[in-house]
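Suppose you are handed only these lines of text.
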Amino acid sequence: MTEPRIYLSPPHVTDVERKLLLEAFDSNWVAPVGPDLNAFEAACAELVGVRHAVALSSGTAALHLALIAAGVRRGDTVLVPSFTFAASANAVMYLGARPVFLDSTPESWNVDPQLVADELRDRAGRGQLPRAVVTVDMYGQCADYQPILEACDRYGVPLIEDAAEALGATYRGRAAGSFGLAGVLSFNGNKIATTGGGGMLVTDDGSVAQQVRHLATQAREPVAHYEHRTVGYNYRLSNLLAAVGRGQMQRLPAMIEARRITAEHYRAALGDLPGIAFIPVASYGVPNRWLTCLLVDAGKLGASRDQILAALEKENIEARPTWKPMHLQPAYRDCVVRGGAVAADLFHRGLCLPSGSALTGHDRDRVVTAVRSVAAGQRG
Ligand SMILES: *Cc1c(COP(=O)(O)O)cnc(C)c1O
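From them, the structure of the protein bound to pyridoxal-5'-phosphate can be written out as follows.
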């Protein structure tokens, strides 16, 4: 009999969330407004260490409104890491602006801070500064903010932090999401904490929070009739989903700890294999361990990344290649890229292992056995 499927990063909800959800339902705050929304926002603002949080229907919606708040308009340029999920770049396109893609550093798989500085310097020289810089905290590990913020401050370009994968991570003791003009969180079903679909914009800037709240509720003016001075969006999160989010925030420390244990287990159980290199952990911070990823050197291991993926699938285990860089995506074929070889290599050799916080010891053993058997099988 085949064993049950192991998913990459499934939702992990319990009686804590169930109780809060049913209480919200019974309260009749079944609307994109209500006490659970306020409490969920307060919990996120507190964790990130900023004054304001606005709950939205997705991380992508939060990115869209963050870019508007940063002043991005049609024809503008925005620097975006190439190695990311498409949403980071899509939000730029929604505004008729163009992303310029930057390569990653192998030290953290995040955007290379030197490339951010070089691109800003070159563009300043041509009088073509980008309207904003987007950073992404990849797989739950912060980008290197000290040099990135130095470069952004030098040229007066606002930073938007896509911390969709990094809730609960820190950089030099400061929380992911707190580094830019605005930070973006995601509560999609595959993230470290979920509302079944949702997002959050976090910021210290009261006027940004006010503008985003206004735009997210159809830009309706505070008068009795429906008055609109600008075009708005319907981007607020439901109060029911915020109730689930409140429970997830209570359980976040335990869920991060579970993912950390899984990450360390994989390192201990697979780290001796030749040709396997886990995602590096930079000394500047503490990642949330959203996904445990590794690079495969097929020559040394005697098996390729895709052979490992196939062996895992055969055991009914879901794993995935790492993100396909934006500069290699057909949708972004016409965009400028600075570098790109690092991101391409991370994609061609990278593998994400099942990392959910409800993963059991038995699940981990199944993953490890499948990976080890393909390595041994190919060599023997
Ligand atoms: C998940 C994710 C998003 C989008 O979040 P949604 O809530 O799914 O819209 C944006 N950026 C990155 C890097 C992500 O991983």
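What can we learn from it? The pocket of pyridoxal-5'-phosphate is lined by residues 58-60, 84-85, 87-88, 136, 162, 164-165, 186, 188, 199 (CB under 6 Å). Residues 22 and 240 are 8 Å apart (CA to CA).
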